[in-house]
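DM from R.C. (forwarded with permission)

"hey, sorry to bug you on a friday — could you get me a structure for this? deadline for the figure draft is monday and I only need the backbone to look sensible"
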Amino acid sequence: MFSGEIKGDKVIWAVVILLSIFSLLAVYSSTGTLAYKYQSGNTEYYMVKHFLILLFGFGLMYLAHLVKYTYYSRIFQIALFVAVPLLIITLFVGLNLNEAKRVLPLPFNLTFQTSDLAKLTLIMYLARLLTKKQSVIKDFKSAFVPLMLPILIVCGLILPANLSTAALLFLTSLVLMFIGRVNLSYIFSLIGIGVIILGIFILVLYNSSSENQGRMGTWQSRIENFIHPEKNIEGNYQVEQSKIAIASGGLIGRGPGNSSQRNFLPHPYSDFIFAIIIEEYGLIGAGIIVLFYMILFFRAVKIVTRIPKNFGAFLTIGVSFNLVLQAFINMGVAVNILPVTGQPLPLVSMGGTSIWFTSLSIGIILSVSKEINKTGSLIQQEYVRG
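My reply, with the result:
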């Protein structure tokens, strides 16, 4: 009965549900200390809150997958003109989070992370432009410049508050342009421009007030701690605690709810939730999580092969690549093969805006797969609205 009500790729639906179950178990286990500190020991508080956030996310996913994906072309073209001003506003009046203004305050003690909206909006916008410009895709003025400008503007506005998110979105944009057959020399020139902008920004930050230097100090210390961990044991505290959690997990883990490192890791429910999963479910549990994300990307690639060079293909590969790469970055940080970035694990880490935009993104992928299921294979180039 349920399978008849939902549409789209059933494997993706299954992966999302299973990741959400892991998420509920891991968040409940990792928020015990937080509950005793802020909720008088009510350990169910954060799990119930997280469950409601996930439930709302599933509602967004379901509604998004019902809409025909071609409609998103026009919707997110308009959304770009909302996302950019919001990023600018956040830089000036956003709430300070880890020495950076990343979120806007909302009523009822809620916050909104504007970079999450900007990520999805830019990917949609690029997918639309790549589809419309295929006939002149090798032209510098007609195709490359309209693609380059929104990338530099959005990534440049995210950069001051969140270097890792800006870099992840920039890389996703480059992958989309490569798949969209943009001239390789133009892509390399965009990389060069990005490096120059980053260099100028760091130089300005270095010579600015001590308040702004604090952010650069955070980047510098994270990279130095990663390269030379033996020089600053105190600065590597969270990484060391993550290693202990992973070593304690072994092959099968200590069992659900039996983590000890949740009491020592600074953010066991978000940035380092993968370490808690390994501690409680072992190498087998970690392998299952990795497998889920690989299946998600594999199914997305399968969708792309069915609809080559159209809006649905660019949309699906851009959104899925960004989500899965973010997941592997989070897991890479937890196992100490990457420096600390602050990227959440999609659909698993505790959060609000991140989970909702991840759910919306997956709903859009499901919308594309739904249309393929209707017609067998959409090989022809569809009309992009607007």
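R.C.: lifesaver. The chain has 14 helices and three strands.
me: no worries. The mean pLDDT is 84.
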